[in-house]
């Protein structure tokens, strides 16, 4: 009994759809579609030491499970806003985990905006697993935040992010990792396990050159890569000249910045979120359009 489909059908002899969903940690709608013969289930091999990616196509569900690494080569370009905004757009469609990978002392921007309590955080993964470490911020949106004090940060193992993300893949449809402006083992581990890379830049040529240099150490063979230029900067330059990425521009949104400083989550109607909706659609259109019309039903297009 190796495949997901076989497991679901065997368990259905003894359990209802809700119990199967809880046991296998997949959406209950997916269980019902498999049992009704309306779903196509594919298991795509994952990266080294990572579990297979489960892709489910049905009338209700059409997506490739994604681990999205949001990365930058300069602070202050809006990377955290992009990660949170993308999670906000996806939470009404699928189960989302947002991972705060910043190991700076103090309350992170993500924890501040979402008004999260200090505990639990990433360190709880070591003894409570993913379920004991996350905070439910919104329906279908959980957050795995970083510790805030130096002693707890220093106690984290170098591979804890890799292990946490790998574990979370059995529970969530999409995992969005807000990576810091840094390199090194924790960041590298997330990059290796991600199948989607969203690069955020302010558009300066020097900054994009640094980002390109960092990418030289990343295996991009099995990843989809998207380039997002914040503040409507030019999307051409060193990166676009060397590598062919899907490129998007985000216009300046003063209301967004003011709202985030006050700890307010943004409105879906602003220019920033409209631009992110284009990124979301581009990420998911390839699998959805294969089923004819599903993309429109999912995203209202």
TrEMBL record:
Which keywords does the record carry?
ATP-binding, Nucleotide-binding
Gene Ontology CC entries for this record: cytoplasmic side of plasma membrane; cytosol
Q: Which InterPro entries match?
A: AAA_dom (IPR025669), P-loop_NTPase (IPR027417), ParA/MinD_ATPase (IPR050625)
Q: Name one Pfam family in it.
A: AAA_31
Domain annotation AAA: ranges: 66-200
GO molecular function terms attached to this record: ATP binding; ATP hydrolysis activity
Q: Name one GO biological process term.
A: negative regulation of cell division
Q: What is the designated name of this protein?
A: AAA domain-containing protein
Tell me what organism the protein belongs to: Neomoorella glycerini
């Amino acid at each position: 009994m190796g495949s997901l489909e076989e497991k679901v059908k065997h368990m259905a002899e003894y359990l209802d759809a809700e119990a199967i969903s809880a046991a296998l940690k997949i959406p209950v709608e997916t269980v019902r579609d498999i049992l009704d013969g309306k779903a196509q289930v594919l298991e795509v091999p994952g990266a080294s030491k990572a579990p297979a990616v489960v892709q489910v196509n049905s009338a209700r569900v059409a997506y490739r499970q994604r681990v999205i690494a949001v990365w930058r080569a300069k602070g202050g370009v809006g990377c955290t806003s992009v990660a949170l905004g993308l999670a906000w757009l996806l939470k009404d469609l699928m189960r989302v985990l947002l991972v705060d990978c910043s190991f700076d002392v103090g309350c992170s921007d993500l924890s501040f905006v979402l008004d999260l309590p200090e505990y639990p955080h990433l360190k709880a993964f070591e003894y409570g697993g993913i379920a004991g470490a996350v905070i439910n911020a919104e329906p279908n949106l959980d957050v795995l935040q970083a510790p805030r004090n130096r002693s707890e940060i220093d106690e984290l193992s170098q591979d804890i992010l890799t292990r946490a993300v790998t574990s979370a893949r059995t529970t969530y449809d999409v995992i969005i990792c807000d990576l810091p402006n840094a390199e090194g083992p924790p960041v590298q581990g997330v990059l290796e396990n991600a199948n989607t890379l969203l690069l955020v830049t302010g558009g300066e040529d020097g900054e994009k050159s640094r980002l390109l240099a960092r990418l030289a150490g990343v295996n991009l063979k099995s990843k989809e890569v998207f380039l997002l230029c914040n503040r409507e900067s030019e999307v051409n330059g060193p990166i676009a000249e060397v590598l062919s990425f899907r490129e998007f521009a985000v216009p300046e949104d003063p209301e967004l910045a003011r709202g985030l400083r006050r700890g307010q989550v943004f409105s879906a109607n602003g220019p920033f979120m409209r631009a992110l909706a284009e990124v979301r659609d581009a990420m998911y259109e390839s699998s959805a359009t294969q089923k004819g019309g599903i993309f429109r039903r999912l995203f209202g297009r």
